[in-house]
Amino acid sequence: MRILLLHNYYQQEGGEDTVVANECELLVSHKNDVKLFSVSNYEIKDFFKKLKTAWKSPYSTEAKFKIATEIAHYQPDVVHMHNFFPILTPSIYDSCRESNVPVVQTLHNFRTICPNALLMREGKLCEKCVKSTPYHSVIHGCYRNSRIGTLALAHMVNYHRSRNTWATKVDRFIALTNFAKNKFIEAGFPEHKITVKPNFYKEKVKGLAKSPSPRNGALFVGRLSPEKGVPTLLRAWHGLAIPLRIAGAGPLLSMVQASDNLLVTYTGRLDADVVSIEMGKAAFLVMPSEWYEGFPMVLVEAFAHGLPVIASRLGSLAEIVEDGMTGLHFKPGNAENLAAKVRWAVEHPEEMQRMGENARREYELKYTGDVNYRQLMEIYEGVVEEKREGGRHA
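RESULT FIELD:
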């Protein structure tokens, strides 16, 4: 297949960028002809460019022309859009339609229904924009505490909702979990156009490596921010006699560094190889998120390492981590409940080892590159065939 991948990089590298790189490499490794067309938010340097980008966020004729030109030159069988915000915009769907090329859109976050993409407001879950007008968000400045920035995004969401863009201009959506799929259906997305396909972990060493010493301690890997549950994590560790290693960076870095708990160690932000080593040493991973995670790469990576996960009983995390089978659930934002689950984990090492083995089996069943490739190609082949059949009946 000839596959054109489209992606708008943020200024700060994130999980979406890793997914794009992994899927691109996966497709190429199976002898597909793949081209990645990308733009970066680093292009938005001065105030006037920011203003222009915000104004064009609902629809950019410039981006539409660029992608139409790319399609004409490359002649892809399918276009796969990952992130269109803010430079590419949903205008690229028209480029695909006018060229009669099917388009697939991965829903990495909730940007298409929520201006800040998180379904959160002032540190709390908020779903007002799912079914109601997105202009609620402007009052609260949900996007980066900016009413002007939020207004631009609310307009983008409302513009395409009112024009039925999601139902008529995208051939297939990829949701990362059933939980996310249901949220998009609530927001009016057509159920028959949404396929669930999770992310995958590109394993470097086949099979689960045996640690030279017994696994010990807890591990947190992620952005140090409120929605990731960092304050809850630190509160839970008061009185716990188990080591905790925290890896990452973010706005709550000073809070982590200021912790006077001698059992809490801050490692800084680690590269992938070092994270893998840490996962091989830890007894379990802790994911205390207080927002609707998409499909965190760190979670599937933990499963690949046979590492059970203590996770918030919330959204996609509660779906991916099966309580008592691949890890434990605790009440979101409840430090006491998290501490209780950590104590149970320490007191029941054999049960936690069994959960880790289950997690590894879950990885092999659902989250390897081979499994993901089959799912991805089924989606591509499906939309190509639908487009072909539509042409025959036109």
